[in-house]
Records
---
Amino acid sequence: ISDDSSFYGGHGIVGAQVPLGCGIAFAQKYAKEEAVTFAMYGDGAANQGQLFEYICLWDLPSILVCENNHYGMGTADWRAAKSPSYYKRGDYVPGLKVDGMDAFAVKQACKLAKEHALKNGPIILEMDTYRYHGHSMSDPVGAHTFTRDDISGVRQERDPIERIKKLVLSHDLATEKELKDFFINLNIDMEKEIRKEIDDAIAKAKDCPMPEPSELFTNVYVKGFGTESFGADRKEVKAALP
Amino acid sequence: MAARIHGGAATALSTFNPKKLVAPSRTNLPAARSSKRCIVAGGGSDASKKSLSVRHSQKLIANAAVATKAETSATTGTGHELLLFEALQEGLEEEMDRDPHVCVMGEDVGHYGGSYKVTKGLADKFGDLRVLDTPICENAFTGMGIGAAMTGLRPVIEGMNMGFLLLAFNQISNNCGMLHYTSGGQFTIPVVIRGPGGVGRQLGAEHSQRLESYFQSIPGIQMVACSTPYNAKGLMKAAIRSENPVILFEHVLLYNLKEKIPDEEYICNLEEAEMVRPGEHITILTYSRMRYHVMQAAKTLVNKGYDPEVIDIRSLKPFDLYTIGNSVKKTHRVLIVEECMRTGGIGASLTAAINENFHDYLDAPVMCLSSQDVPTPYAGTLEEWTVVQPAQIVTAVEQLCQ
């Protein structure tokens, strides 16, 4: 989560972040900034039901992005919703279904969505995408949903990066050989660099000392207005370690 | 073995109304509930009247096991060993076999087998409608379960994590809890709402919530917390058979506990507390995961010469003040160890209840060890400091028993 980069974070309770996003859009409209908010959620969260009714009432400059990877952890989208066309869910909110694996399509759609949101009001973008791995650490891939063939098939045909490579080749922007050499050099350097960056970050994180006990109570309330953490009896409670 | 009533309490009995405590079904003192009773050297009823400092100096060594099972499960010989989530599954399956009205609904309970494998295999056995995979909308499917219960079904609603049930709070509070009352008894809601809660291993603030503290005020519901495979299966079955809405609190970290449970059918009483370890010096009340922290601390305490009585309260609403009361009357000191937050948790209510009902029997103020009033941190070390650790329990007992 970072305030200065306008990224307001991911949230634990599925679907809870959409009203938050609409709140940010509300504030933007209130302050008359010419800005929009992208509120992102998944196909599983689309059923949570905290979504559409109010954003149109006030024409909030919000763009609801549904990343549809067709599986909400364990349940397929057609088993979780009668209508898995999430872009149509808005009824009176216009919706657009975008091939989420095509980088250019996504870029154009977002550009269109921003123009629309600023001029007319909310719009829904459904990004049709695919899930290579499991939902989380406790949901290993291939458990029951995808087979290895499925995944490699999608990787070949629809993988965003592969697709751009094919586009470059088919439009003769570079020959296969040039691309290969370029990629080999670039890839090796890039991969090495990226790997190094990640390894550095991991090493830095591991070297960092573990938080002190006093940090347990930081940021519960805004600093300077009294105690750090108190219960109903206003007692200042600190962790007393034996 | 009958529970002993302290000699000095004879005069207090006139003001103390035992009827307040006794559940309607229980009319006599529990006989033979604890199979192992620790023998206190130098015992006799005078011992309990002496101040504890005298006893401490005598260095009494309690010779009972640190963990004893009150029920006779391990003594029947035959039985089968399984993990806690398998025990829950067994209980659920047996009830579904027994009564065709019992059904399950929740996220990923059917084809996926349940996020903690509690409903594994049930969809294959009972079909998709009886083990229903719902979309991710807690408010909607909890409401749906309650509506189904009003007309005769007995749904078991699973919240994938207790924290998600906050979205269903409206349904649980207004419909589940109140409908029996507001309809003049016409509608019964025999629903079971269950799910894992509590602080896990670095699950983050939103997935480590203790909802028993929020739900305890709702009139019309019962709350129970399981802690061993034995009581998990027993409480699951009892909850399903109950005509009242029951919320069964499981704990994320306890699903892989292994224990031997009886082959024959059994259920646990929904309103009864479990005597984990009888003792003389101090009563420690706990439930769910904290039971294991307490038992770990009890090992240390026994080595130091203390004799704690550990009770797993199991029933969070209503409290089993009968068992608790008898224990307080015996030991005169109470320590509550819980995982809820300090503010408004189960411990807070229990402290109030004990102070109100057993004030005359207490030699020291009731001490309650709870989690800190902070959102559960993601960092492992901070998360450890949020919940009560065995070392803190030992310190608290030493402080109380001075």
---
Amino acid sequence: MDADSLHYSLELVAGSGNILNTEHRTALQTSLLILRKNYKFNRVLFWGKIMGIKEDYFIAQGRGDDELKDKKNLYSFNCMDWFLLPPATIPMIEEVSKAATGRFMGDASHVYENTILKKVGDEDEVEEELVRISAVEHRLAVTIHLIDDESSVIPRGAFIKNPHGFVQVNRCFEGLTESQAAKLDSFLHFRDPKTLKKKSLLELSELNQTIDFLDLLTDDVPKGMWSLQFENANKVLILRCLLWLGMTFYHVPMTPQHGYIYIGDGVRNLDLSFML
Amino acid sequence: MDEHRDRSGDKMLKSSAAFKTFLMKNSQKSNMNLYDHLTRLLLKVMDEQPNDAVDIFEDLSYDVKRGLFEDTKNRLRDLPHTTLAELLAEQQRLLFTQQEDTEHEDELVESPLPNINEIGFYLEQAGVGLGREEMQRIFLALKQLVDSQPLILHCRLWGKILGTQSNYIVAEVEFKDWDNENEKSDQAAEEEQNEARESEENEMDQLPQSTYKPPPVVPKEPMGTGSNKNVYYVCKEPGLPWVKLPSVTPAQITVARQIRKFFTGRLDSPIKSYPPFPGNEANYLRAQIARISAGTHVSPQGFFHVGEEEGEEEDEAPRDSYEVNPDFDGVPVSEMVLSLSMWVHHVQHILKQGRCSWINLAVKPEEDQNEEGEAEETEEEPDEPEPEVGPPLLTPLSQDAEMFNTPPWSTKISSTLTSQHAVAVLRSNLWPGAYAYACGKKFENIYIGWGLKYTGQGYSPPLPPPPQKEYPSEPEVTEALDPTVEEEQVLEDALEEQQAAPEEMENTDEEEEEEEEQELDND
């Protein structure tokens, strides 16, 4: 959620149970402004909190000219000192998925080790120990990337693609009406579209090139992955992702206020199909 | 002469034209002119031909004038759309009404209503909560609950359970006496048995009775003890009526331990799972609440102590009662954060059986009421099962077992910068969403989450049991391979040799037999 709107939008997502301490909130307001100036971001978002066993990681995300591609993630333990995370690449994702299991520790110097016993050949039963190593920073970067990829949401019309191909905030976005907001198909994934290309020509012809360049939430599998509710005396629309428990998206209908935040333990909910 | 006539004619024409233009001049007020009005009026009289037109002439004129005003508004008007927020606001308005009959005496008597504003403040320091306005609404809703139920001893906000379609706000209530509850549950049980007996009588022919005896059902704990110590009320939004959850049975707890399901938000929705859950979502919710309470309700050590009436150390019966310790001074926050032994559980652990106090099922109880109406015959002699023992009440958290390589609790101090006035926060890693805080003499537990336990890497549902054996296998029923041709041949040769010795005389018979057997073999 945008750093400028932090002080009131945290109340709107409080229905999920996790809010920020007043101390952290004020620290964030100060430090995010400084961060924006130092790194020359266009916008700075408070992305959320990943809870570790000993300590929690506060994550901030800075956005450049292209909102979809120019993203930089930073983490901090005390909301004041921020450290830049490396961008997540495919070999990094592979490395982390093999090595890092269990919960986040909360220790910046922790190294994940996963030893796998592997049999070499059928004849000799020698077992080799393969040790996969990954650093916490890599794991954080990959987790944030995956969460953004799979569960970041925007209302339809909030971002537009300008003629140069940059994705930017739509200043004319007035907000969805209440009846539009009650339907899941008014929301889009904020990531490089994957299912959009698979749509038929007939469906594509109905879409508006400037605002419908992203995947719909209703194309997600399994179908019940998103929980749509009105909260806070039915004033705010809340979308919760059941695949990444802790991801909350909010939108106040008829206003341009929207945003998302992740407060959770950074572990994908693999049992989703059993739980629905 | 002609000129004169012409001049007077012209004059008349001119004056009539002048008069006509005068008539056609639009009035400044109404933008109408007399000429048009008179035309319309006369046309109307021509059309309608009323009697005594001259008497109603003024009315006619008035009607014509009025008919000129068209209705500019559209006949169709939009129905005002009642939004969801407006509907809820109507119901939540009742929260803010003051009861007329509250007397000042009530302020002196200790009210069972907790001070949610204070709790909300401390929870906010800990980083947990629902937002100030929502907490305020919940506060008022709890007040409504307490006012509506007269026998409440303690009332507490237990927490919030999130669901896919709507959420539950849960309140924990302890009643002063349990007679009402027992009566209702007995009545329900009796009704069930009556229905079962009636269905038995309706059967005309007795179908063959199966010899299957289901394993004995663990009886549920009586109200006021063990996992049924408190009664829980839920509501969807503060302001909507509170619904009481049914009491929990051990079977529900054992099945709830094996399944993993989201809550939908509707209390009557069925739970489709394997093993099949005995009940609907209300029962599942109650079972999870019982498990969470047993696992995560903690208090600073010394806040509660065992009742002084039980002077002897009873090793057999588990302690199930505790009292607030009046001598508790409060533990400094730094100590609470450093070591887990300063926190203790104050809710009884639920045994594997599903109850807090173990019951021996092998013993035939005398009051056993069979729902099927069959007489229980003497059971086989089982081995005496060992009584299950859980950790006693008020055990410190340092004794909690570590599961899945994660420590079960994480402690934190709410602020490192102003640690003199900070709050000690305890977070459960096994039940994500369970928090406890302590600050001086005050403490509180709360759960805000999805109602699910942390199961490590992945959940795998339990396998179905192996299929039952059909009947005991005896040699008559077991299949055996038919003997092959060679084996039969060998057998025959052996028989021939035996018969050849005594019966050498009957060669022809043997030959016939051989031929017959060859024919049979060829078949």
